[in-house]
Design brief:
Helix content is 44%, strand content 15%. The protein has 142 residues and is α+β, with helices and mostly antiparallel strands. Bound molecules: zinc ion. Its cofactor is Mn(2+); Fe(2+).
Length: 142
């Protein structure tokens, strides 16, 4: 999924609206978050942010992620067997495959599954508000 530089600005604005001051450290975190296409965990985000600004601490990464998550701007994924991983919430809806051998996260979207879920919920008297679907997989060619 493609992220744009505009995302970093949007993240900044959302934090500002919440009264959070955009320090150099936070700006670095927002930049790497908006450019990430691989669902990095906090440690990896910290590593990348430090390439931009050495003074970014892991604690600042955690605090910033928590603030962004509380505002629904960032999704935290608690995939089994991996530390929490993050992605911006502005992407079109998609689900995830987690490769059990490599930990790699692959995005997919199926209209068939979306429709089926809506139909199941409907039958049971519900509207789907949101959902998360995670497939834990192993490559066939292994
Ligand atoms: Zn994703």
């Amino acid at each position: 999924m493609t992220h744009t530089v505009a995302t970093a600005k949007k993240l900044e604005e959302a934090l500002r609206a919440d009264g959070v001051r955009i320090t150099r450290q936070r700006a670095a975190i927002l930049k790497v978050l908006s450019e990430a296409e691989d669902h990095p965990d906090a440690t990896e985000l910290h590593r990348r942010a430090r390439d931009i600004d050495e003074s970014v601490s892991l604690a600042t990464v955690y605090r910033t992620l928590t603030a962004l998550e509380e505002q629904g701007i960032v999704h935290r994924h608690s995939f089994e067997g991996t530390p929490a991983r993050f992605e911006t919430a502005d992407l079109p809806h998609h689900d995830h495959i987690i490769d059990l051998d490599t930990g790699e996260v692959v995005e997919f979207r199926s209209d068939k599954i979306e429709r089926l879920q809506a139909a199941i919920a409907e039958e049971l008297g519900y509207d789907v508000v949101r959902h998360r679907l995670e497939l834990y997989c192993r490559r066939k060619d292994k």
